[in-house]
Structure formats: structure tokens, C-alpha cells
Prior knowledge:
It is a single chain. By secondary structure, the protein is of the alpha/beta class. The chain contains 14 helices and seven strands. Strands 1-2-3-4-7 form a five-stranded mixed β-sheet. Helix 9 (196-212) runs antiparallel to helix 10 (217-231), helix 9 (196-212) packs parallel to helix 11 and helix 12 runs antiparallel to helix 13 (300-307). The longest helix has 37 residues, at 259-295. The radius of gyration is 28 Å and the shape is elongated.
Amino acid sequence: MDNNFSDNISTASERADFDGLWKDAIKRFLPQLIERTLPALYQDVDFSREPEFLSKELRDSIQRPVADEHNSPLFVDELIKIFLKDGRTEWILLHIEVQGSGGEDISFRMMLYCCLIFAHHRKMPVGLAILTKRRPKDEFIGAYHLEQYGSSISYKYNCFEVYALDDDYLLNSDNPFDLIFYATKKTIGLSGKSKEEKKFSYLLKLTRLLASKGWGKEERKDIFNFIVRAVNLKDEALQQKFIHDIHDFQGDDTMAQLTFVEKYFLNKAHSEGLNEGIEQGRREANFETARRLRAMGMIDNDIQKATNLSLDEISSL
């Protein structure tokens, strides 16, 4: 399993972060995701065999104009080869779409992807659409049907509506993916300066809750990474307050690496260390220059002008 665990999104970089955020979560917690969304499939999966993520093959099978049609701000797709316990059916393909607001008709896209996947792999996928926000009222979800002059096609797929999940259930669940769903549900639409306090409250609440869970340290760390990236707290003062608050109840046992905390401390340490190293190197070079100038007989005042060292430092050489 991939442990590199490695917003309302408007810019290209934020869209990429949303895409990577969900892809990381799906790869890291695939069994828990299947257990929560497709319990019947969960019973049949052989989790002792590593799943194969075929997103590149999925992209390659889609013509570029089609891919561009639904490249909405909140859109993630995954195609996964999953091995089963049943010897008669060795493996299946699981097609997952994560969709928020915007984008083309989700049912049409699910049907289109099903056709493309079938044509490419000669295997019908199990379709799962994870909807983080309500779709337009006139859009039918869960199935697609098209009929014309006696010919018809129907496609039914699994639809998991994150926005409709019960908050208390998610918070009390023992499935780690439910905290991911809760963070997504509560923070996906929060943006702007006025929402930063609310994002801070959610982040602190989820952090405290996560710290109380009996899950493994690495598991909690990876969930925490998702939560921090999903909440996307940008206010620097609130970031510092959050760092202070979590230190109080986590102590030295940091259960996770927060994205902006990582950036803050790593960048700060790197910057300070780099500046300190540069300054130290410069001073050592100045001292070495001063020694040579003194050995050549130059007076201290002239050496001071050449090296910016103090007279006391020069006289101590």
C-alpha cells in the first residue's frame, strides 16, 4: 500500500492539489473506502494481493476532447484492478469518480467511461461515483438510459453522496475514511477570509478527535495530512494558533505532519539554517582574509575596512 500520503478549488494548482489529495487517499485507504461504499464487494476482495492503479491506462483510452469536456474544478477519476477471492473471477476493475459541483452530466460520463473501459479491457467495470456536493436538480444520478429507434443502452452505477451523510455517524465511526468524508463535507465550500475561523474550528476539532482514535500512528498521520490539505487553512495567525494548540494536547508525540506546518517549519529552518550557514561561512572567510592581511603587515584599521570585522576581533587573531 502506498504510504506516501503524499478546497473549494479555483486555480489550476489547487485543482491539481485536489486531484492529488483524493488519489492519495484512495490509494492509502482503498480497503476502508470499499468497506464503506461497497460492502458487498469488500467481502469478496483478496486484500493480500496489491491492487493495480490503472489511471494512466484510463487516461490513454479517453480521447483528449472527451477528457477536456468534464475537466471541472472538483473531478477525480481512478481505475483500479482488484483481485478477488473467488477463483472463477480472478479480478475486476473498479472505476471511481470523485465529483463536486460543476462538470458535465455525471451519469453520462459514468456511462461513457464504462464503454471506454470495456472497449479497452474487454471487462465491465464496477462504477462508483463519490459526490461531495449536490448535483443540479434536473440531473438524474445513479443510472443512465438512452433509447433511439428500438436501440437502447442502460447503465447503473453505485452512487455515494458524501453531502448526505450523518455528521454524528461519521465522527463516531471506526472507519478512517469516514473522517475523510467528514472533512470533505464540512470544508469543501469554505473559502475567503470570513471562513478562516470556521476552518480553524473544524481543523482543531478533527485533530482532537483523530488524536483520540485507536488507529496506528502512520494511519492517523495520513488521515491528518488529508484533513489539513482539505481544510486548507490559509490565515497565518490562525496557523500559528493551531500549531500552539495542538502542541498542548499532543506533546512531543506528533501523530502527523501537517502540510502548512511542514512548510512553515521546514522553510523556516531551511531559511534560518541557510542564512546562518552563509553568514558563518562569510565570517570565517573574513577571518581568514584578516589573518593573511595581518601577515602581510597591513594595519588593523585597513583590515577592518576590508573585512567588516571589529577591531577587537582583528586584534584577537
